[in-house]
Amino acid sequence: MTQSTPSTPSTPSAPVPSPNDTLTEILRSGAHDLLATALEAEIQAHLAVFADQVDSEGHRLVVRNGYLPEREIQTGIGAIAVRQPRIRDQRGDAEPRFTSKILPPYLRRTKSMEELLPWLYLKGISTGGFQDALTALLGPDAPGLSASTVVRLKKIWEEDYRKWSKRSLANKRYVYLWVDGIHFNIRLEQERSCILVIMGATESGKKELVAVQDGFRESEQSWREMLLDLKARGLTTAPELAVGDGALGFWKALAKEYSTTKVQRCWVHKTVNILNNLPKKLQPKAKDSLHQIWMAETSEEAGKAFDLFIHSYEAKYPKAASCLAKDRDALLAFYDFPAEHWIHLRTTNPIESTFATVRLRTKRTKGAGSRMACLTMVFQLALSAEKRWRKLNGHQLLAEVIDGVQFKDGIRSYAA
Q1: Could you tell me the pTM of the whole model?
Q2: Where are the domains of the chain?
Q3: pLDDT at position 13, please?
Q4: Which of 41, 196, 206, 409 is deepest in the core (most CB within 10 A)?
């Protein structure tokens, strides 16, 4: 793969910590002591497990044996020196040896550092500029992150993305999907103008990243290729509901590949589209009126607020009224699902919030960005964010949604 090198922007303006910064030194010292204590507790717990295993002379087979050579771990507050306790294990080669879960043998930088590197790359910092950027962000004690190191890491990330993109989905079922086409201020190769993202909610209510590919936001073909790939890898059961913006080719593709999936249009996107057809002076009041629709307690109340908005604006601003009216059913679909899930289903916020910071902080480069590099960095950042995604409210109700239990205005309907 030929990797184009983005132009190197000016070094980030974050202040460079002084070598004699008292607070930083206190933090580093505290981190050092905390890590040392944790490693000691871990080693003692391991020794206790094998305390009764002795040789023919009564000597313990698993004992302390000093320390490993000191090494430095790069963290967000600079380098932390570590002396890791060492164990001598004489139980025989067949027995598994102790490996620290706190500090793996070859760890040289913390996970937060691993997440920082793809962020910097998407920001437009060239491979050769990483050292200066990290020095500005982390202080002068940030060695070992040369251009060659970053290149090696990028190759590992690319392979991770390729494997993830081909993983089996045979045992997966997603009850809900959120979809969007995310635009970055990076010109990609082959005019593939955005990153297509699908997130899903599993049967247990866990949110997961399902797919990340490049394509055209409004292209039915791009989205259909994506859905066909998911089905080929085993995702054959149709989701119950998909949430997304109306200006996506996804919906036509969805109807062909998962025809039973219900459609919910994102209220945030719809609100923006409607307000764009109104004068600025009217937008605050109109926004409040739209809010009254999707925050209504029942579909009947929402329908009344829906009609009121249309009657209020259709004479003078027909485009705004039409923009709302044409998607009535898709905008109110969430009322047929548990009320606990509404907060998750009315918008594509799970995707928007994940990529907002990345999208705002990217910078347009002079040359076209590498397709694989952009996909890889977006994937890495999304995986990092995924660790912090919380389960759906009322996730225990997903079993009822799957079983076809009817909900009216968010409450189980016993009439059936």
Answers
A1: 0.68
A2: 22-89, 111-164, 173-402
A3: 38
A4: 196
